[in-house]
Amino acid sequence: MSDSRVERNKAVFRLLLEYAMPNWPSRSVTVTAEGKEYYCHAVKVVADIDAADNAVRVKKNKPQGHLRVDVQVSFAHNLLIPALPEFHQEYPDITIALGINDKTINIVGEGVDCAIRAGKIQDLSLVARKITDMEYVTCASPAYLKSNGAPQTPQEVKDRHKKIIYFSSTTGKIVPLTFTRKEETIEIVDSQFSANEGDGVINLMLAGLGISQHLRAFVQPHLDSGRLVHILKDWYQPPLPFYVVYRQNTHQSTRFSVFINWLIERFGQPQTFVSGHINL
């Protein structure tokens, strides 16, 4: 019997004694008619409270309700959505609304429960949990390489080849092609084509329009199928961290907690909570 139920029963007994009539010769207590009536009502009330407690416990053990999640385009299409059937099978009573875009939205203003974001988190009012670090690859289509040749160095890419670059849909800032090897780093900022959405960069490469860098997790199916070719394998761009972020002091319902934990278990490495600064 739970502590709360024990206390409720004690309260009922104390009130019941107020309606009791002592029988001193027999040293017994007889319950009055009022006491009997009170007892019947009290038993029903306690039973109703127990039923309510059980219902809440069941809901806690079986998470349910609605979540609003904001997620970047490439992460949504290539990782999250293909994995959601697993989450839905385990938690069928949780509904999810996905906001899919590469813009950094105001979580509080948009009524979003959590967001999946890449790179350094600038908003210090948010709590962030790291999901994973993602590796970049430099690649191009076989058709492009057949027509233009495969570059042997980043300098060749800079001087002789067409480039495709990603730029932020929020700030307009470009993400340069970055090539690092040992102590040497080369950045390329000029391009013939650019896009403010990750899948757009992939499609520009698939169309044979140039060389670009993208996250391996998002282009791996195209590398496996031969539609893209990994080049300049001796050079790398520093990996890109991904975080799930949410407001500080957010009430963490069971549905919220299980979704956050599932994200980290499914896609990356468990990390500590971070608030204020996010350089993990």
Strands, helices and their partners?
Layout: H1 3-18, E1 20-23, E2 28-31, H2 33-61, E3 65-71, H3 73-90, E4 94-100, H4 107-110, E5 114-118, E6 126-134, E7 136-140, H5 142-148, H6 154-160, E8 164-167, E9 174-175, E10 177-181, E11 184-188, E12 193-195, H7 198-206, E13 212-215, H8 216-225, E14 229-231, E15 240-247, H9 254-267, E16 273-275
Parallel strand pairs: 3-4, 3-5, 8-12
Antiparallel strand pairs: 1-2, 5-15, 6-15, 6-16, 7-13, 7-14, 8-9, 10-11
Domain LysR substrate-binding: 61-267
Family: Belongs to the LysR transcriptional regulatory family.
InterPro entries: LysR-type_TF_proteobact-type, LysR_subst-bd
Protein described:
One of its GO terms (molecular function) is sequence-specific DNA binding. Belongs to the LysR transcriptional regulatory family. InterPro entries: LysR-type_TF_proteobact-type, LysR_subst-bd. It comes from Photorhabdus luminescens subsp. mexicana. This is LysR family transcriptional regulator. Strand 8 (164-167) and strand 9 (174-175) form a beta hairpin. Helix 1 (3-18) runs antiparallel to helix 2 (33-61). By secondary structure, this protein is α+β, with helices and mostly antiparallel strands. It contains nine helices and 16 strands. Strands 4-3-5-15-6-16 form a six-stranded mixed beta sheet, with helices on one face. Strands 13-7-14 form a three-stranded antiparallel beta sheet. A three-stranded mixed beta sheet has the order 9-8-12, covered by helices on one side. It is elongated. The chain has helices at 3-18, 33-61, 73-90, 107-110, 142-148, 154-160, 198-206, 216-225, 254-267; strands at 20-23, 28-31, 65-71, 94-100, 114-118, 126-134, 136-140, 164-167, 174-175, 177-181, 184-188, 193-195, 212-215, 229-231, 240-247, 273-275. The protein has two domains: 2-20 and 32-56 and 63-133 and 241-268, D-Maltodextrin-Binding Protein, domain 2 (3-Layer(aba) Sandwich); 136-238, Periplasmic binding protein-like II (D-Maltodextrin-Binding Protein, domain 2, 3-Layer(aba) Sandwich), CATH 3.40.190.10.
